[in-house]
Every structure is written in structure tokens, then in C-alpha cells.
Amino acid sequence: MSQIHAGSPRPSLTRQPSAATDVGDGSKPNDYLIWAILACLCPVWPINVVGLTFSVMSRNSLQQGNVDGARRLGQNAKILSIVSLVGGILIIVLTIAEFSASLLQFSVLHDPSEIILIC
């Protein structure tokens, strides 16, 4: 685990990917950045910001050569983006349904000409 670098008086503790993690299809792991950006448009702000952060961290890990870390962070970004998109769509649908129900209740209780004036 520890390595001694030239000119360094103490060993450096760095994580090196094991040989077993390099076995695979050899393709570049996906960072799901587009999905994370789209998820930021949904009203589930704490989750989608964390998903975007994981996506950027995945991209940085891949640029540093840590394929295993990039794959793991990319999967986290994917899960958080899906949760954000589903949660955001659910919130939007429920908000529209609530608004429609309150508008319908208003139209039943009041004269229809008042609705035109409000809109």
C-alpha cells in the first residue's frame, strides 16, 4: 500500500486500483453528467446537486486514471439523478393536480365569470 517516492522522507499512502478491477470490457465508465444536469432542473435540489457533484467527481477520477473510482462514482451519480428526476416529476404532477383541484373547487363555489377575471 505504501510507496516511497524519490525525494520524499516518508511513504505516501495512495490507493492503487487492483489488477482485478482492470478486468472488464475496457470501455470508459459513464459519468452521467447530462442526466445530472437535467436532474438539476427538477425541484429536488438537495439530491440533484449531490448527483451533479458525484458526476463531476467521476469525471475527475477518470482523468486521474482511477477507472474503478470513476465507475463507482458514476453509478452513484446515476442513482441520484434517477431519484431526482422521478421525485421532480412526481412533485410537478402533484402540484399541478393540487392547483387543478383548488381551481375546480373555486369554480364550483363562485360564479364562472369571476374565474375569467382572475386568469
Provide a concise account of the structure shown:
With 119 residues, this protein is mainly α. It contains four helices and two strands, in the order ββαααα.
Protein described:
The protein is built from four helices and two strands. The chain has 119 residues and is mainly alpha-helical. It has a domain at 28-93. It has a two-stranded antiparallel sheet with strand order 1-2. A hairpin with an 8-residue loop joins β1 (2-3) and β2 (12-13). α1 (33-39) runs antiparallel to α2 (45-63) and α1 (33-39) packs parallel to α3 (67-109). The longest helix has 43 residues, at 67-109. The termini are far apart.
What's the shape?
Answer: rod-shaped
Order of helices and strands: EEHHHH
Q: Helix tally?
A: 4
Strand numbers in spatial order across the main sheet: 1-2
Question: How many strands in all?
Answer: 2
Structural class, from helix and strand content?
mainly alpha
**Main sheet attributes: strand count, strand direction, barrel closure:** 2 strands, antiparallel
Q: Tell me what portion of residues adopts beta-strand conformation.
A: under 5%
Q: What's the end-to-end separation, in Å?
A: 68 Å
Low-confidence blocks of residues: 18-23
Q: What is the helix content?
A: 55-70%
Task: Please describe the topology of this protein.
Layout: E1 2-3, E2 12-13, H1 33-39, H2 45-63, H3 67-109, H4 112-118
Antiparallel strand pairs: 1-2
Give me some keywords for this one.
64% helix; 4 helices; single chain; 119 residues; two-stranded antiparallel ribbon; mainly alpha
